[in-house]
Specification:
The protein is an alpha/beta fold and about 375 residues long. It has helices at about 5-25, 60-70, 90-100, 115-130, 145-160, 175-180, 180-190, 195-200, 215-220, 235-245, 265-275, 285-305, 315-335, 340-345, 345-365, and strands spanning about 45-55, 75-80, 105, 135, 140-145, 160-165, 165-170, 210-215, 250, 255-260, 370-375, 375-380.
C-alpha cells in the first residue's frame, strides 16, 4: 500500500469523529442557569426524588447525600437504598436521616435471579419514591446546589422523558487520566446528536449511567428498570428502552451540574470498563470495525510521523493534518470539560488501552467467564435489550 493511501486513510478516519464532535458541541450544551426567583421558597418548585443505590459506599455516600440535600429550588426527597452492604453505609445514612426528614434509608430485598444489582436497586427505589420526577444518581456523584433545578429546566425545555449527561469526571491515577476522558470523545465523536434529537429510534439512544432524570409516568409506561434487568450498562440500555417504548430521550452537558470520580486506580478502572463492555463496543461484529476505525484515525497518523524517513512529503502532510484533527477534540475537551492535559497528549495510547480492555471483555465473554462487580458475578450481555 503506497504511503499516500495510508495518509489519506488516516486523514479520513481522524476527520470523521472530529467533524461529528464539533457539530455536537452545538447540541450538547449545559442547562441554563436558574434565575434566582426560581429558587425562592414562595415559588412553585418541581418535586424531585433523588434516588441513590448504595452497596458498600461508606467512603462516598455521606458526600453524595449532603450534596443532594443542598439542592436549591426543588421540593426534595432523598431515598438511599442500602443494597446489602457489609460496611458502614447504612449507619452513615441513618445518622443523616435522623437530622433531616427529607432523607430515607431503605433496605434492598434479596436480589432476584436474572437481575443486575444496580438495576434491581433502581427499580426498588422508583417504587419507594413519592415525587413525579425521578433522579437516579450513583453514590459517587456530587450534585451542584443548582444542579437539579437546572436539569429539570432543561428537561422541560426539551420536552423529553429521560434526560442524561456526563458529569465532570474527576481523575487521579494514570489509568483514569488515559481512559475516563474518552467517555466524552466517544459520545460526542460518534453519536450524531442532531439526529438523536430529531428521532426516537433506539439506535440513537445514549446516556450516562451516573445521572438520569426521568418523568415517573414515562418511566412506568416503559416498564422501568425491569425492562433492562440483566443489563450492566444502563447508560445505553435505559435510554434505548425508553425509545423502544416510543418515548423521547435527550442529553445535556452535565459537567457543571454534577461531578463524579467513577473509579479509583488501574484495577478498578479495568474491571469497571470491562464489566459492561459487551453491551457497548465489545460486541462480536462491532468491535473489529471499531478497532479498525480507531487505529486508522487515532494511531496511524502518529505512526506515519514517527517513521517519517519511510514516506514522501505528501504522505507526511496528510499524516500531519490527520494528527491535528485527532487532537482537536481532546484539546477542546481540556477547555470545555476540564479534562487533564496529560490524557489529551497521550490520547493515542488511551485509545489503544481502551481497545485492549474491549477485546479482553469480549474474550472473557466468549469463554463464558462472568463479570464481577461489588462482590457479585454476572454473565456478560452481548446485545443491549431493546
Amino acid at each position: 500500500m503506497t504511503g499516500w493511501v495510508l495518509g489519506a486513510l488516516a486523514l479520513v478516519f481522524a476527520a470523521l469523529p472530529a467533524f461529528v464532535f464539533l457539530r455536537n458541541l452545538r447540541v450538547y450544551t449545559p442547562p441554563a442557569k436558574a434565575p434566582p426567583a426560581s429558587r425562592g421558597l414562595n415559588e412553585e418548585r418541581p418535586a424531585v426524588a433523588i434516588l441513590i443505590p448504595a452497596r458498600n459506599e461508606e467512603g462516598s455516600i455521606a458526600a453524595a447525600v449532603e450534596a443532594a440535600l443542598a439542592s436549591e429550588g426543588v421540593d426534595l426527597e432523598v431515598v438511599v437504598l442500602d443494597d446489602h452492604s457489609d460496611d458502614r453505609t447504612a449507619e452513615i445514612v441513618r445518622a443523616i436521616a435522623a437530622r433531616d426528614p427529607r432523607v430515607r434509608l431503605e433496605t434492598a430485598p434479596p436480589l432476584p435471579a436474572g437481575w443486575c444489582g444496580k438495576q434491581h436497586a433502581c427499580a426498588v427505589l422508583a417504587r419507594l419514591a413519592t415525587k413525579p420526577l425521578l433522579l437516579f444518581q450513583d453514590a459517587d456523584v456530587r450534585l451542584a446546589p443548582d444542579g437539579v433545578v437546572r436539569l429539570v429546566g432543561r428537561m422541560d425545555e426539551l420536552k423529553t422523558d429521560l434526560l442524561s449527561g456526563v458529569p465532570y469526571q474527576e481523575t487521579g491515577t494514570l489509568f483514569e487520566i488515559l481512559l475516563i476522558p474518552l467517555i466524552h470523545w466517544i459520545l460526542l465523536g460518534f453519536l450524531p446528536m442532531d439526529r438523536m434529537r430529531a428521532s426516537r429510534h433506539p439506535a440513537f439512544a445514549a446516556g450516562c449511567g451516573q445521572l438520569f432524570l426521568a418523568r415517573r409516568d414515562a418511566y412506568e409506561k416503559m416498564g422501568g428498570h425491569a425492562t433492562i434487568k440483566a443489563s450492566l450498562h444502563d447508560g445505553i440500555t435505559l435510554p434505548r428502552a425508553f425509545r423502544a417504548a416510543g418515548l423521547h430521550t435527550d442529553l445535556c452537558d452535565a459537567s457543571d451540574v454534577a461531578r463524579c470520580r467513577m473509579y479509583r486506580g488501574a484495577a478498578e478502572v479495568w474491571r469497571g470498563l470491562a464489566k459492561n463492555a459487551t453491551e457497548g463496543l465489545a460486541r462480536p461484529v462491532l468491535l473489529p470495525i471499531v478497532t479498525l476505525l480507531f487505529l486508522l484515525g487515532q494511531v496511524l497518523p502518529l505512526v506515519l510521523l514517527a517513521t517519517a524517513w519511510l514516506w514522501d512529503w505528501p504522505t507526511l502532510a496528510l499524516a500531519g493534518m490527520a494528527t491535528a484533527l485527532l487532537y482537536l477534540p481532546r484539546l477542546i475537551g481540556i477547555a470545555r470539560f476540564r479534562q487533564p492535559v496529560l490524557g489529551a497528549v497521550l490520547h493515542p495510547a488511551g485509545v489503544v488501552l481502551l481497545l485492549v480492555v474491549q477485546w479482553y471483555a469480549l474474550g472473557r465473554a466468549a469463554l463464558g467467564r462472568p463479570a464481577a462487580w461489588k462482590g457479585r458475578r454476572y454473565q456478560s450481555v452481548h446485545e443491549p435489550p431493546t
